UniProtKB/TrEMBL annotation:
Keywords: Signal
Source species, domain of life: Bacteria
InterPro entries, sorted: Conjugal_tfr_TrbG/VirB9/CagX, TrbG_Ti, VirB9/CagX/TrbG_C, VirB9/CagX/TrbG_C_sf
CDD domains given in the database record: VirB9_CagX_TrbG
Family listed: Belongs to the TrbG/VirB9 family.
Keyword Signal: yes
Protein name as annotated: Mating pair formation protein TrbG
Keyword Cell division: no
Residues of the signal peptide: 1-22
């Protein structure tokens, strides 16, 4: 019995995983269709409606008047954008059409719905839904056959604006990243440094200077771990504080030095890397 119970439990878990995976795949395909339709709208000015295999029709908001076909003894679901708050629903024929608001999903970002059901066939009316974000206009038809179970919307104007905002953010990020580093000219680079010590985690991958600044390239995962302290070794072999900043995996030191130490920890567990400049002669990739 225990074996059978374990098999049944494993089968149930597998079915749940498969269901979730299928849902994710369906959503990804639907989002791809929305992106494709929006890009086409950008080029042609024509926003297509999207038909899905599950009986759902997705209309472009504010580009086409949705015509929703319903049927007596069946309900139709009008799904709005997640996070929207319905303020009012008005329908032309309040006698032969039944309306019912509903929500789905988590309360913090729930999806609003309006469930509608005609009480007779061969009738038509219009409906207006106002929310805290926009106003929806729909035309409703009741027929005995051919009803649509579910409609929702995609938002070409909002999506294009989101793409534009993301491009601006990426552009600003790139410009800020470039501005974080001083201007570097390849002919001025000096890679003639040696690295010694017992700190595997804090050992730099590369060290060079441009005649004004020293750049110490650390390992990619250094930002997720404790960072070592950089000290300049000056006259009489004394440690000195120095101005530096850490940007995109580099220690950028605002002066040249002949010797420095990267130190992490104290006592017996201390890790230390000694960086020494071999000469002041310009050197490139194959320095000896």
């Amino acid at each position: 019995m225990k074996i059978l119970s374990a098999i049944a439990l494993s089968f149930s878990a597998l079915m749940l995983v498969n269901t979730c995976l299928a849902k994710d795949i369906e959503n990804n395909i639907h989002n791809d269709k929305i992106n494709t339709a929006t890009k086409s709208w950008q080029k042609t000015g024509h926003a297509a409606l999207i038909k899905n295999g599950n009986g759902r029709i997705t209309y472009p908001f504010d580009e086409k008047l949705p015509m929703l076909t319903c049927s007596p003894l069946h309900v139709c679901d009008i799904e709005l954008e997640a996070g929207e708050k319905i303020q009012n629903v008005a329908i032309g024929d309040q006698v032969r059409w039944i309306l019912s608001p509903a929500t789905s999903g988590k309360s913090s970002n729930s999806t609003p719905h309006v469930i509608i059901k005609p009480t007779d066939e061969n009738i038509a009316t219009n409906m207006i839904i106002t929310t805290d974000l926009r106003t929806y206009y729909l035309y409703l038809i009741s027929k005995k056959t051919g009803y649509v179970t579910r409609v929702n919307f995609y938002y070409p104007h909002d999506l294009v604006q989101k793409w534009s905002d993301n491009e601006e953010i990426e552009k600003e990020t790139r410009l800020n990243r470039i501005a974080e580093f001083p201007s570097i000219t390849a002919v001025n680079l000096d890679f003639n440094y040696t690295i010694k010590g017992n700190g595997k985690h804090i050992t730099p991958e590369k060290i060079f200077n441009d005649g004004k600044h020293v750049y110490i390239k650390m390992k990619e995962d250094i930002s997720s771990k404790e960072m070592p302290v950089l000290m300049i070794i000056g006259q009489n072999n004394q440690a000195e504080l120095v101005n530096y900043r850490v940007k995109n995996g580099y220690y950028v030191v605002d002066r040249l030095f002949d010797k420095a130490e990267l130190i992490l920890g104290v006592g017996r567990n201390q890790e230390k890397i000694i960086i020494s400049r071999k000469s002041t002669k310009n050197c490139f990739f194959n320095c000896k």
